[in-house]
Write a structure and sequence with these properties.
single chain, Purple Acid Phosphatase, chain A, domain 2, 16 strands, binds manganese (II) ion
Length: 400
């Protein structure tokens, strides 16, 4: 069977709302035309509470896919909620949709509407002419809960099927900066393919000798260097045991690095202009590229980063969307936290995970030793809605 893997469509992403919709639609429609089934490892939406018009966009896209026949169908299912369709569009919620364990997230809505199969914390078996593919899903959880969650789920690969483990997490090999991230070789053995979301550039690795694939997002969001490559999706062929990347048309993103060392502001402005011109000229004019100019170094004695009018430079361009980052110009740094937040390392981490990290650190420093997992506590405290009830529940758990 041919399995399309489309990830991190981020429907409703405010900065590039139209891109998110158009590029998700293109990726999914192309994916359907070249595959027997589609799997999606999370962040289908950009929010836990998408507005009705964003939910409508998702219904338009997934409703369109559901109207067509797939060559395969879901023949068995175990999950948090019942199965509402046998169409093989199988997904899990990611970090952006994450809510408390029992709450309804927006991917549940698509499932309830009979448009997709939400395989979070469950298993779906898809069949085509007797061939079976089993998809095991772990919806996005706090990083330090991932290992325990896998242990609790105790997934058993299906005999005679091609088995896929799909999740939405940071792994140490991809983002090597937190001891809460699991290592790739700690993932359970016995699967034929490992599929992860969350990372917005494409990744191809091996896990226990089997392919480990991250297709990356279909829309620009994080603006990291890795997002300069073309967006798209993977198609894995279970017969050939091989896969290919299918690019989609997406907004071009260019990062240019400008060294300001020993320069005066006027010369820095000229350098930036030259770089923007070159970046614009290197692509087609059909769509405005997003150009991120990263300044680095120490300016000429007597000048500082704030002498550069980056807003004027950025807004002076019609043919591109320009943003100028001057946080690596030396004079600007002020305090370790700000540096941390602005450093490239943290760009990889969601604010939620960063907050979780600080929370854990404080608990550890204060000798926290109660049995309630700190990440569970964090989730309760940061869950939506009835805060009072959530907090009293947490306190009850803590002291009972
Ligand atoms: Mn994402």
């Amino acid at each position: 069977m041919r399995i399309a893997i489309v990830s991190d469509t981020h429907l409703g992403y405010e900065r590039f709302r139209e891109d998110a919709f158009i590029q998700a639609k293109e990726a999914l429609e192309q994916a359907q035309s070249v595959s027997d089934m589609i799997i999606m490892p999370g962040d289908i939406f950009d929010y836990r509470h998408p507005k009705p018009d964003v939910i409508a966009e998702a219904i338009i896209i997934f409703g369109g896919l559901s109207k067509k026949e797939f060559p395969s169908k879901v023949t068995s299912f175990e999950g948090k909620s019942p199965l509402y369709t046998d169409k093989p569009i199988i997904l899990i919620p990611g970090t952006h949709e994450r809510r408390s364990d029992t709450a309804v997230d927006p991917t549940d809505l698509l499932s309830l509407a009979g448009l997709v199969v939400n395989v979070s914390m469950g298993k779906a078996v898809v069949e085509k002419n007797g061939e079976k593919v089993a998809v095991f899903g772990v919806g996005g959880v706090a990083e330090e809960r991932f290992k325990d969650t896998l242990t609790q789920l105790a997934f058993k690969p299906v005999d005679g099927a091609f088995n896929i483990l799909m999740f939405h997490q940071s792994l140490y090999e991809l983002l090597p900066f937190s001891k809460d991230f699991m290592h790739i070789e700690e993932l359970p053995e016995g699967f034929d393919l490992y599929v992860d979301g969350h990372i917005h550039n494409k990744v191809e690795l091996k896990c226990h000798g089997k392919p480990f694939l991250v297709p990356g997002s279909t829309v620009l969001t994080q603006l990291k260097d890795g997002e300069q490559e073309q967006k798209g999706f993977f198609v894995f062929d279970t017969e050939k045991k091989s896969y290919a990347f299918h690019p989609i048309s997406s907004r071009r993103f260019v990062v240019v690095k400008v060294d300001v060392s020993g320069e005066e502001p006027n010369r820095v402005s000229e350098k930036i202009e030259e770089c923007i011109k070159a970046a614009v000229a290197s692509g087609s004019k059909a769509e405005k590229p997003l150009i991120r100019v990263e300044l680095k170094g120490k300016m000429k004695e007597g000048f500082k980063a704030s002498d550069l009018d980056v807003n004027r430079i950025a807004s002076a361009h019609q043919e591109a969307i320009v943003e100028v980052a001057r946080n690596n110009v030396e004079e600007l740094a002020s305090g370790k936290d700000v540096e941390d937040l602005q450093s490239g390392m943290l760009e990889n981490l969601s604010i939620r995970d960063y907050g979780m990290g600080i929370f854990l650190e404080k608990l550890r420093a204060n000798g926290y030793s109660l049995k309630v997992s700190p990440s569970r506590l964090f989730e309760i405290l940061s869950s939506d809605g009835k805060k009072d009830a959530a907090v009293s529940k947490a306190i009850e758990e803590l002291f009972s």
